[in-house]
Specification:
The protein is α/β, with parallel strands linked by helices. 49% of the residues lie in helices and 14% in strands. A five-stranded parallel beta sheet has the order 2-1-3-4-5, sandwiched between helices. It is globular and about 60 Å long. It binds 5-O-phosphono-beta-D-ribofuranose.
Length: 167
């Protein structure tokens, strides 16, 4: 059974949403990915959100742009955590999406990541699942350690070659 639902309002969101899926793939977490528009097909959306718990989802990652109601409406129906990803937009730079997703009224939280923050949404979903999965927690600790190692290696190189020769 998929543990995470990844849903986006349009296939134009795919380049960002695929980053969340990539992270889940790397960590061995099962997911289902769908394109469902809350505005353009409300009946399909309600069917999706109402059946999400029964399908075994523990977290939903929902991405949308502009008047981005998809994550908030998922949170209104699905009883477990919803992570919202605001899409960058050409007219307002993604502020429209960000404000639509982050400014949820009291009682219906959406954990909102940065504009186009697909990878962090995947990591946050993994961290939520890791609260009851020690093997996954170990993988996340290894991942954090690899981030640290990468910075240490870059600084070591900087000290060796100096900033003028740093590439
Ligand atoms: C939203 O409208 C989608 O999430 C997308 O980010 C935005 C634009 O959709 P398209 O016109 O590209 O299909 O529902």
């Amino acid at each position: 059974m998929p543990k995470v639902g990844i849903v986006m309002g349009s296939d134009s969101d795919m380049p960002v949403m695929s980053k969340a899926a990539d992270v889940l793939d790397q960590l061995g977490i099962s997911y289902e990915m769908r394109i469902i528009s809350a505005h353009r097909e409300p009946d399909e959306f309600f069917e999706y959100a109402r059946s999400a718990e029964k399908k075994g989802f523990k977290v939903i990652i929902a991405g949308a742009g502009m008047a981005a109601h998809l994550p908030g409406m998922c949170a209104a129906i699905f009883p477990m955590p919803v992570i919202g990803i605001p899409m960058h937009t050409t007219s307002l730079g993604g502020r429209d999406s960000l404000y639509s997703i982050v400014q949820m009224p009291s009682g219906i939280p959406v954990a909102t990541v940065a504009i186009n923050g697909g990878a962090n949404a995947g990591l946050l979903a993994a961290k939520i699942l890791a609260t009851s999965d020690d093997e996954l927690l170990g993988k996340l600790k290894d991942y954090s350690a690899s981030l640290k190692d990468a910075v240490v290696a870059k600084d070591k190189k900087l000290q060796e070659v100096g900033y003028k020769n740093y590439k």
